Amino acid sequence: MKICIINGPNLNLLGKREPEVYGSTTFEDYFAGLQAKYPQLQLEYYQSNIEGELIDKLHEVGFNNDGIVLNAGAYTHTSVGIGDAVKGIETPVVELHISNTYTREEFRHQSYIAAGAAGLVIGFGLKGYDLALESFLR
């Protein structure tokens, strides 16, 4: 089973940025643990701070993967384009957020991705990636 994890803006700073919200583990370290924990999955990881690059990646993997885990970061709340890309591809997408967006600023309560997503995982820290992967295994 082929799964692509796509992370959006500022998620390259995990482990450094607001550790009280996002923890102190880098995503690269966490991803290595996911690969070890789920050897039956062919996992790919992609991160970009650029909206168009995220859309391009969704188009690239959205017709030949078994699943996508998408943490679009702040673009979740602003990007109609990413939301449209999720709706336009065949591969199921699980929208993911490390923090509970509903306990944060009100503008973070809106998602342009959710309407096209197969499901959402919100507020479980990095463990949310495990939950998203598990959803594809069921």
From TrEMBL:
<dbReference type="GO" id="GO:0009423">
    <property type="term" value="P:chorismate biosynthetic process"/>
</dbReference>
<feature type="binding site">
    <location>
        <begin position="98"/>
        <end position="99"/>
    </location>
    <ligand>
        <name>substrate</name>
    </ligand>
</feature>
<keyword id="KW-0028">Amino-acid biosynthesis</keyword>
<feature type="binding site">
    <location>
        <position position="77"/>
    </location>
    <ligand>
        <name>substrate</name>
    </ligand>
</feature>
<dbReference type="InterPro" id="IPR018509">
    <property type="entry name" value="DHquinase_II_CS"/>
</dbReference>
<feature type="binding site">
    <location>
        <position position="108"/>
    </location>
    <ligand>
        <name>substrate</name>
    </ligand>
</feature>
<comment type="function">
    <text>Catalyzes a trans-dehydration via an enolate intermediate.</text>
</comment>
<dbReference type="InterPro" id="IPR036441">
    <property type="entry name" value="DHquinase_II_sf"/>
</dbReference>
<comment type="subunit">
    <text>Homododecamer.</text>
</comment>
<dbReference type="GO" id="GO:0009073">
    <property type="term" value="P:aromatic amino acid family biosynthetic process"/>
</dbReference>
<dbReference type="InterPro" id="IPR001874">
    <property type="entry name" value="DHquinase_II"/>
</dbReference>
<protein>
    <recommendedName>
        <fullName>3-dehydroquinate dehydratase</fullName>
        <ecNumber>4.2.1.10</ecNumber>
    </recommendedName>
</protein>
<feature type="binding site">
    <location>
        <position position="84"/>
    </location>
    <ligand>
        <name>substrate</name>
    </ligand>
</feature>
<keyword id="KW-0456">Lyase</keyword>
<comment type="similarity">
    <text>Belongs to the type-II 3-dehydroquinase family.</text>
</comment>
<comment type="pathway">
    <text>Metabolic intermediate biosynthesis; chorismate biosynthesis; chorismate from D-erythrose 4-phosphate and phosphoenolpyruvate: step 3/7.</text>
</comment>
<feature type="active site" description="Proton acceptor">
    <location>
        <position position="22"/>
    </location>
</feature>
<dbReference type="GO" id="GO:0003855">
    <property type="term" value="F:3-dehydroquinate dehydratase activity"/>
</dbReference>
<dbReference type="GO" id="GO:0008652">
    <property type="term" value="P:amino acid biosynthetic process"/>
</dbReference>
<feature type="active site" description="Proton donor">
    <location>
        <position position="97"/>
    </location>
</feature>
<keyword id="KW-0057">Aromatic amino acid biosynthesis</keyword>
<feature type="site" description="Transition state stabilizer">
    <location>
        <position position="17"/>
    </location>
</feature>
<dbReference type="Pfam" id="PF01220">
    <property type="entry name" value="DHquinase_II"/>
</dbReference>
<feature type="binding site">
    <location>
        <position position="71"/>
    </location>
    <ligand>
        <name>substrate</name>
    </ligand>
</feature>
<dbReference type="GO" id="GO:0019631">
    <property type="term" value="P:quinate catabolic process"/>
</dbReference>
